[in-house]
Amino acid sequence: MYRGSSGLLQKNHTIHRETVNIILKYKHLQCSKNKEVGINDLEDIINLIKELQDHYRSITFIKDNVKKHINPTDTLISKTILGTLGCLPAMDRYFIDGVKDKNEKFISLSKTIFLSYLHTSIKSK
Questions:
Q1: Which of 11, 61, 91, 99 could make an SS bond with 7 (beta carbons 3.0 to 4.6 A apart)?
Q2: Distance, C-alpha 61 to centroid of its chain
Q3: Do 46 and 114 touch, CB atoms closer than 8 A?
Q4: What is the pLDDT of residues 10-49, one digit of tens each?
Q5: Which residue in 71, 70, 90 sits closest to 79, CA to CA?
Q6: Is residue 85 within 8 Å of residue 49, measured between CB atoms?
Q7: Where are the beta strands (DSSP E) in the chain?
Q8: What is the C-alpha separation between 65 and 57, in angstroms, rounded?
């Protein structure tokens, strides 16, 4: 997430202020002992992911005298959501390796992937 190539290391904590505002709009997705997210929350989760991606893409930094945009990886977005709302797993290399071990295909954070995963987990219950 905070690798030097990502651009986040060149910024201070204030770049996350808008992230907090975006998360607060979706606080109804926060998981707790009494509430889990489900298929009915999928559109909101997808919208949250898109808003976070758009926000981070809008941030620029200079590297080697070239203006670049931050690349909002699945790891960055999913760990942000996991750490604040708890409604997604961290989509890091360990998660992806686990998915591959189950002979499943994981491409990126998308509605198609979530629907496929939900369909598979519902069938296995």
A1: 61
A2: 21
A3: yes
A4: 676 788 899 999 999 999 999 888 888 888 888 999 999 9
A5: 90
A6: no
A7: 60-63, 66-69
A8: 19
Residue 45 carries which side chain, given as an amino acid letter?
A: I
**Please, which residues have CB within 8 angstroms of residue 6's CB and are 6 or more apart in sequence?**
70, 71, 73, 76
The residue behind tokens 């977005």 is 77
Amino acid at 9: L
Over its C-alpha atoms, the chain yields an Rg (Å, rounded) of 16
Please say whether the dihedral angle defined by the alpha carbons of residues 78, 82, 19 and 113, taken in this order, is positive or negative: positive
pLDDT tens digits, one per residue of 42-100: 899 999 999 999 999 998 888 788 888 888 888 889 999 999 999 888 888 887 787 77
- pLDDT for res 124: 44
How many beta carbons lie within 10 A of that of residue 112, not counting itself?
Answer: 9
What is the C-alpha to C-alpha distance for residues 93 and 55, in angstroms, rounded to an integer?
Answer: 23
Q: Which residue has the tokens 């760990």?
A: 79
Q: Which distant-in-sequence residues (6+ apart) come within 8 Å of 60 by Cβ?
A: 7, 67, 68, 69, 70
- pLDDT recorded at residue 40: 87
